[in-house]
């Protein structure tokens, strides 16, 4: 298996025959298969990270709420002006709704998101002393915050292990036959039973990275996938290596990532600011 630590496309030089996953695969066999895929992904994406720009738990919480139904790139292009205007929960809770709506308009659904941000900021101010809580039970009580958002915040701002079941994560774990569950809460429970808690946060990053860069929803780049020999759904996408390579996104395809301020070890290019040519 070839790693891609420099951000170049993984090398898959010929078509790969999909492995057969027995219908009666035991739980132990599934666990071994899933953990091997995770180890391979760790080699391909040693720099995997949250793709939202943030400097503190409050910024990550707000950015994650804004990320619903839009890209992390669009959120990252929008939040600099938002946080310049409202750097704390107290500031944001006192915002004029119409002014906030204009700032976050690029992320879509800006009226509903403004309502959530005003509500969660007021709750942080009134019930938590202006600080983002570090407990799941407290986070999910905030307006606009569900388990997915809470796990993102816990895992990346507080170091508390969590599994982030977004659309990419759910799609890939079903393609890999780790589960056939559709409900995110049930998916989370199944995956939590397969992996040790210490792996939950980084597993989420790796799977989401892979879903965004190679294992796309409509046309996965099977022929350029470094875990093709382990994937029971190999062949759903383009299997020709050269054609598949042209489907790669972000740093795998030589393009900017989604963060304007990526981590120092990120091998790709920073994303452009909003309105940049």
What does this structure look like?
The chain is an all-alpha fold. It has 12 helices and no strands. The radius of gyration is 20 Å and the shape is globular.
Bulk shape: globular
How many individual helices? Answer: 12
How would you sum up the major sheet?
Answer: none
Mean pLDDT: 93
Radius of gyration: 20 Å
- The portion of residues assigned to helices is 40-55%
- What structural class should be given to the helix and strand makeup? mainly alpha
> What string, H for helix and E for strand, traces the elements in order?
HHHHHHHHHHHH
How many DSSP E strands? 0
Report the β-strand fraction as a percent range. Answer: under 5%
Report how far the terminal alpha carbons are from each other: 38 Å
What low-confidence regions span 5 or more consecutive residues with pLDDT below 50? 1-6
Which helices and strands appear, and what pairs or packs with what?
Layout: H1 27-44, H2 57-66, H3 72-85, H4 89-93, H5 97-104, H6 110-127, H7 136-139, H8 147-157, H9 167-175, H10 184-194, H11 200-213, H12 241-245
Short descriptors:
mainly alpha; 12 helices; disordered N terminus
Summarize the structure.
This protein has 277 residues and is mainly alpha-helical. It has 12 helices and no strands.
